[in-house]
Amino acid sequence: MSLDGTYDAGNIFAKILRGEMPSARVYEDDHVYAFMDVFPQSRGHTLVIPKHSTARNLLEEDPAVLGHLFGGVQRVARAVRSALKPDGITISQFNGAPAGQTVFHLHVHIIPRWEGQTLARHGGGMADPAELKILAEQIAAQIS
Ligand code: AMP
User: Fold this and answer.
1) pLDDT digit string, tens, across residues 114-138
2) Ligand 1 atom at shortest distance from the alpha carbon of 103
3) Which helix (H) or strand (E) holds 99?
4) Residue 53 DSSP class
């Protein structure tokens, strides 16, 4: 899917928001929902999405929603830092399939990084749900 198109309410993240699909929840407020990526590129890979949005990508989003979204990204990234003590954190966001986007509900990746550790492939192996739940709880405990 390129940058053109319409929002599909059947996408995976919309289903997670409606409670139709499970997720390892890290944080939620009136505007954003954060949960563990099930195909993590590193330990603690977390996603943050707007809750009330039909934007497929950043270009389509209301700037006011982006403000809330990135406020949530900062809050969760700080909690990831406290919980997992990474050496760095990659924040990424893809727009359109040619750019690497696979789920077409706007989302931001928080990917903890450690010195000397290469990232797993984007959309690589699936994580153990039990381990993701533990990580989600560890990060959630550091939300301030
Ligand atoms: P992107 O490729 O930027 O669209 O990112 C989509 C992300 O969603 C990828 O990193 C996937 O690993 C992740 N993902 C796909 N399905 C699920 C799911 N059911 N729960 C959590 N993360 C998912």
Assistant:
1) 999 999 888 788 999 999 999 999 9
2) 4
3) none
4) -
Residue 136 CB neighbours (<10 A)? 21
Residues 54-82 pLDDT 10s: 999 999 999 999 999 999 999 999 999 99
What is this structure's pTM? 0.97
Contacts with 64 (C-beta within 8 Å, 6 or more apart), sequence order: none
Nearest ligand 1 atom to alpha carbon 23? 20
Distance 107 CA to ligand 1 centre (A): 9
The answer, yes or no, to whether any atom of ligand 1 lies below 6 A from the CB of 23, is yes
Q: Where are the beta strands (DSSP E) in 14-78?
A: 25-28, 32-36, 46-50
Sheet holding 88-92, edge to edge: 25-28, 32-36, 46-50, 108-113, 88-92
Could you tell me the domains of the chain? 12-140 (3.30.428.10)
Q: Is 107 a catalytic residue?
A: yes
* Ligand 1 pocket, residue 57 CB under 6 Å: no
Q: Ligand 1 atom closest to Cα of 37? A: 22
